[in-house]
């Protein structure tokens, strides 16, 4: 994610890394869209809080630092059957939702994906909700999606992950601990158009897309409505 003027961002000169996420999509039993989005967002938070990423000498710490020093890219791919089992054998963390499973991996160079992941498909990650999701709990974080943007499930999963990361960065240590102890409870919902206009100017963390895939550069995709951040504003 980036500011609206991508050409002037100094992070372009740094080595580029990407955070891989893989969603399990068995042919006969794919997850619901909202479940997958929420699970992906939680997976990002689980990795960011893992001691392998946070400890100075953690196994993933340098990769996470390198990733965060450049553009914060996330790519969601899909797998099933043997593909999923191979992906699950790589270092990473599998996070489960109501039915969704998402595995998050430590960041890798943009052109250096592990062979078990590089062959997985990005396109075709299309999911539906069998029925409209319930209203979110206002006492817990909600990642609001822009109702004016049509995004594939994979793209929306990555954007939800960005929103969760922005919220995480903006919280202090005590708030992070409390969220982690609550299992990183959150909701992902598409905002009503009028509500979106209010959210986008509310001072809450806003994700602006770099425009690498699907949508125009600078598009506002997600607002992270964490109860403790309603007087703050952060951009990635």
Question: What are the low-pLDDT stretches, counting only 5+ consecutive residues below 50?
Answer: 1-7
Distance between the termini: 6 Å
Structural class: alpha+beta
Mean pLDDT: 89
User: Helix proportion of residues, in percent?
Assistant: 25-40%
Number of strands: 9
Q: What is the overall shape? A: globular
Characterize the largest beta sheet: strand count, sense, and whether it forms a barrel. 5 strands, mixed
Number of helices: 8
Strand content: 15-25%
Order of helix and strand elements from N to C terminus? EHHHEHEEEHEHHEHEE
From the alpha carbons, calculate the radius of gyration and give it in angstroms.
Answer: 17 Å
Plain-language structure description:
There is one protein chain. The chain has 236 residues and is an alpha+beta fold. 33% of the residues lie in helices and 18% in strands. The strands form two sheets. Strands 1, 2, 3, 4 and 5 form a five-stranded mixed sheet that branches. A hairpin with a 4-residue loop joins strand 3 (93-96) and strand 4. Helix 1 packs parallel to helix 6. The longest helix has 18 residues, at 153-170. It is globular. The termini are close together. Residues 1-7 have low confidence and may be disordered.
């Amino acid at each position: 994610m980036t500011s609206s003027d991508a050409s002037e961002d100094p992070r372009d000169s740094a080595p580029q890394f990407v955070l891989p996420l893989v969603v399990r999509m068995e042919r006969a039993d794919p997850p619901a869209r909202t479940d997958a989005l929420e699970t992906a967002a939680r997976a990002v938070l689980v990795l960011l809080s893992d001691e392998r990423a946070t400890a100075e000498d953690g196994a993933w710490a340098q990769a996470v630092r390198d990733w965060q020093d450049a553009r914060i890219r996330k790519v969601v791919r899909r797998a099933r059957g043997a593909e999923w089992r191979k992906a699950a054998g790589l270092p990473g963390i599998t996070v489960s939702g109501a039915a969704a499973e998402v595995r998050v991996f430590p960041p890798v160079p943009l052109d250096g994906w592990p062979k078990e992941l590089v062959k997985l498909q990005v396109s075709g990650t299309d999911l539906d909700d069998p029925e409209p999701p319930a209203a979110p709990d206002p006492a817990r974080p909600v990642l609001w999606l822009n109702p004016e943007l049509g995004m594939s499930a994979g793209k929306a999963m990555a954007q939800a992950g960005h929103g969760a990361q922005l919220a995480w960065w903006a919280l202090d240590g005590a708030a992070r601990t409390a969220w982690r102890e609550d299992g990183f409870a959150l909701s992902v919902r598409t905002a009503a158009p009028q509500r979106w206009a209010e959210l986008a100017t509310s001072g809450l963390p806003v994700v602006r897309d770099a425009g690498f895939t699907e949508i125009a550069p600078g598009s506002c995709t997600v607002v992270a409505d964490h109860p403790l951040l309603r007087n703050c504003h952060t951009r990635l």
